Amino acid sequence: MVTEAEVEQYLTSLSNWGRWGDDDRLGTLNLITDDVRVAAASLIRSGRTLSLSRDIDPEAPDALGSGIALVQRFTGLHEVADHFDGKALRFDAVTEYVGISAHGSNTHVDGLAHYSWEGKNYNGFPESDTTSRFGAKSLSVHHAEAGFITRGVLLDIAALHEVEWLERGHAVTPDELEAAEARQGVRARPGDALLVHTDNVAAILTEGPDAVGPGARQAGLHASCLPYLRERDVAVLGNDGVQDAQPSGFGLDFLRPIHTVGLVALGLWLIDNMQLTELAKVCQVENRWEFFFAALPWRMVGATSSAGNPVAVF
Questions:
Q1: pLDDT tens digits for 150-172?
Q2: Alpha-carbon distances, residue 172 vs 28, 108, 258 (angstroms)
Q3: Which of 90, 119, 140, 243 is a good FRET partner for 102, with 20 to 30 A between their CA atoms?
Q4: What are the backbone dihedrals phi and psi of residue 10, each rounded to the nearest 5 degrees, phi first?
Q5: What is the pTM of this model?
């Protein structure tokens, strides 16, 4: 295990700042090259698809106890009649307003403006570039317009320990990631979407959260996994939780070190609160732990996050 001082050093020793130019806004998405996408497409054999997201439900907006719960849907009836002064025609339509706090219990992408450290976002962009009125000026999710189209790899840590789900607060180490690779006969490589299965979401949906917000215990990655993510040049990290083990084992400055160092130093895009239970079952049955992966974030200017529906294709 590493000390808090060593984790702080990761902010410089693992940094990708300047690696793809001083004005780079894509971070690790630069690792998803045309060749990587072509190779990923070659993994499609049966065409079977699996959603890796849960429903976004206004009736249950915070099922995982994130403490960030806002999902609104308003359906406007009789659109056509409204346009024709109430005249009833043989056809009609509805309109809709949807409002959502994307950084919440739902499956969502964290963009590079989501976290900062000492006033700086990824690649040195100032935190002040993000304002409440205009959103993220420099590191908006709309820069990821090409999406996450790449090879997906699932590392099943729950299966490694022969449990349905990991104990709350279990901190996954790099040794466990490598042990899962050896067990499954697969290895994370540059440009991959690495998905880590702890079945944390299934545990919370079954037993309920033990607290709300950052105080809730969750299985996730320990900060010592950060060099592994940098060395393997993972492009996207997905988890059935909030990435970080909670509690992290460190002080409040590193409440979520995977988020802080990953987003700020590595420029690593994160997908939180994925639903990986069914994917793990399919991978086990087919003895295949790699697949075509696709996720398409919102092309919304200024947004720091995006709800989404990642899919795996076999």
A1: 999 999 999 999 999 999 999 99
A2: 22, 21, 12
A3: 119
A4: -55, -30
A5: 0.95
